[in-house]
Write a structure and sequence with these properties.
The protein is α+β, with helices and mostly antiparallel strands. The protein is about 50% helix and about 10% strand. The strands form four sheets. A five-stranded mixed β-sheet has the order 1-2-8-5-3. Strand 1 and strand 2 form a beta hairpin. Helix 12 packs parallel to helix 13 and helix 13 packs across helix 16. The longest helix has 25 residues.
Length: about 450
């Protein structure tokens, strides 16, 4: 077999880093157009990083029987200021597997139904505050909904002073990196300079400390009282490792922040995108509304199993994945990918966005067509918005369940109007890819 040469992007490293930070999707699309399905970049450091996106390569790499890839926590060091050193994201080896196994049950299975009605109620409360005819930003409303879901269902905090403080602090904290330019302090560690409370990084760190204090107070309070709470914090506190020990307070705190980062803005952004696409295309809206109205009793479990609603959510996550790439990986041994020889110890990032934009998988990939997911079943190497392998998103079932219920509640009960005059572009917001401007909409008077 002839070994093909993997090309390295010729653009200077600094330019690559700036492009990746400010316009990540355009960066990856341009590179794929110029260099193909597999290429080297230096977006993170002088170390060459391999970008892969071909489904055949992904299947070869992620096949659990082959054990080709390692997913070291140290490769996710860029997230440490957000999630803390005890986060699942930064763990390695056995500790990572133990912690992941411990955290999985509360986010799956029967517990999901328990959270369904709360999710619908929180959505209704947020939507009822909107005034008919007045323009609102869909992403802001969705962020308010998902923040309350995090606080109530995940953190177990009900309305009150601590709830309000955490809601305000966490919203302000996340807003500090909500534009491509401000996100550069997260993407480029060299910019992380604490120059006092009014400097961008100084403000970021001080808000984080205030959030830490409130989360620790919540954990300590829960430690003191036996209760029958079913929120995720309570379930995590009850869970035990194989040796009979539970998570420490700092492990709980850092993983609560991890669930916030992984489940708040990400889900809100996906719902805002879905509202945009649904209302941009009347035929999609009519078909979805018809399906939802066909339910005699729209209960959470029945809603989550609706095929067209599921297809709408999948197509939303296909056309603009909330994150463009997975966590970085390292090859444990050499591997041949369609004639390209990849050496052991190669640092690589699989690119979800490029896979989801393949013309051979998704004809006219720039068009929103939920029917794709009715007419065809895609493999986990062709459609993979939550990643793959040992770092696959732990909360993907919860996130999809939440997304479906929020969309269903809005579409069934409110007639919205899209106020955008031109097609929306996707832009970076921290580590997330979201709609520019957040999607302007209004509630029609019924």
């Amino acid at each position: 077999m002839t070994v093909k040469q993997i090309e390295k992007i010729k653009t200077p490293q600094l330019i690559q880093q700036i492009e990746f930070t400010l316009r990540p999707l355009e960066f990856f699309e341009r590179c794929a157009q110029n260099y193909g399905d597999i290429f080297f970049t230096t977006i993170f450091s002088d170390l060459k990083t391999l970008v892969v996106s071909h489904p055949q390569d992904l299947q070869e790499l992620f096949d659990p029987a082959s054990k080709i890839l390692a997913a070291p926590g140290g490769a996710n060091e860029i997230l440490r200021p957000q999630v803390g050193e005890n986060s699942l994201i930064l763990q390695d080896g056995k500790r990572h597997l133990r912690q992941r196994k411990l955290m999985m049950p509360p986010l799956h299975g029967k517990r999901m139904v328990d959270y369904g009605q709360q999710t619908c109620d929180i959505t209704q409360q947020a939507m009822q505050r909107l005034k008919p005819g007045k323009t609102f930003i869909a992403r802001h409303v969705c962020e308010g909904i998902t923040m309350k879901i995090i606080l109530k269902i995940v953190f177990g905090i009900n309305e009150g002073l601590r709830f309000e403080k955490l809601e305000n602090l966490m919203t302000a904290w996340l807003d500090l990196t909500n534009s491509p330019l401000s996100a550069s302090v997260l993407m480029l560690p060299s910019l992380r300079k604490d120059l006092g409370p009014w400097s961008p990084w100084g403000k970021y760190l001080r808000l984080r400390l205030q959030i830490d204090d409130l989360l620790m107070a919540q954990i300590w309070e829960r430690r003191q009282v036996q209760s029958n709470h079913i929120d995720i914090l309570s379930l995590l506190m009850e869970a035990k490792y194989e040796n009979g020990e539970g998570m420490s307070d700092v492990e709980l705190r850092d993983n609560l922040l991890t669930l916030l980062i992984a489940g708040h803005e990400t889900t809100a952004t996906a719902i805002a995108w879905a509202l945009y696409w649904i209302h941009q295309q009347p035929q999609v809206y009519k078909k979805l509304l018809h399906e939802l109205r066909s339910l005699k009793t729209p209960e959470a479990l029945e809603i989550s199993q609706l095929p067209y609603l599921t297809a709408v959510c999948h197509e939303t996550l296909r056309i603009y994945p909330i994150v463009a790439t997975t966590f970085p990986r390292i090859t444990l041994r050499s591997v041949n990918l369609r004639g390209y020889q990849v050496a052991s110890g190669t640092y690589l990032i699989p690119c979800i966005h490029l896979t989801h934009r393949r013309e051979d998988l998704y004809p006219q990939p720039e068009k929103f067509q939920p029917e794709r997911f009715i007419n065809r079943k895609y493999s986990p190497y062709e459609f993979w918005p939550f990643g793959n392998g040992s770092r696959q998103c732990l909360g993907q079932v919860f996130a999809l369940f939440e997304m479906k219920l929020i969309l269903a509640t809005i579409v069934l009960n409110y007639q919205l109007k899209l106020e955008e005059k031109a097609p929306l572009k996707a832009v970076r917001r921290g580590f997330v890819i979201g709609p520019q401007g957040g999607v302007k909409m209004s509630v029609s008077a019924q």
